[in-house]
Amino acid sequence: MQYWLMKSEPDVFSIDDLKRVKVEPWDGIRNYQARNFMRDDMRTGDQVFFYHSNCDVPGIVGIMKVASKPYADPTAFDPKSNYFDPKSDPDNPRWMLVDVRYVKKFKRTISLAELREDPVLEGMRLLMRGNRLSVMPVEKAHWDHILSLV
DNA sequence: GCCAACGTTGGC
DNA sequence: GCCAACGTTGGC
Hints:
By secondary structure, this protein is an alpha+beta fold. It is about 20% helix and about 30% strand. It is globular, with a radius of gyration of 15 Å. It binds a DNA duplex through loops.
């Protein structure tokens, strides 16, 4: 079992949206490091923190789990999509994704500010300077500690 | 809206 | 391969 964190702007796709649809392809990731985590390292059943970015109170809002093997991101092939990438070849897709399934929404948001103040979480990738990665691993010790804050 | 940090592109 | 220019992310 591995643990992850994935970011989404709630104006685009929030944990309430995921709760409604239950399962969602995590499309639109256009960063190689993030793609590599999804393509090479994620396993069905891995647990994932849902993080809201670019909003009033950025932070962790709930849990989902990986619900598929990696497959080609279909939005890369759709000229009408914001995520269209003409350089992604259907025979050798550049962008891969996994489906995620809703598990739970926390009763409260564990805010970025709160995470930053917590000495136990020192060194957590999310909190490193200038971090912009939207898909990243979470250490089990950090995962367990964050759950204890909810 | 601002801007620091970072990733990508493309000329050379 | 270097690096300047540019585009994006995302907190504040």
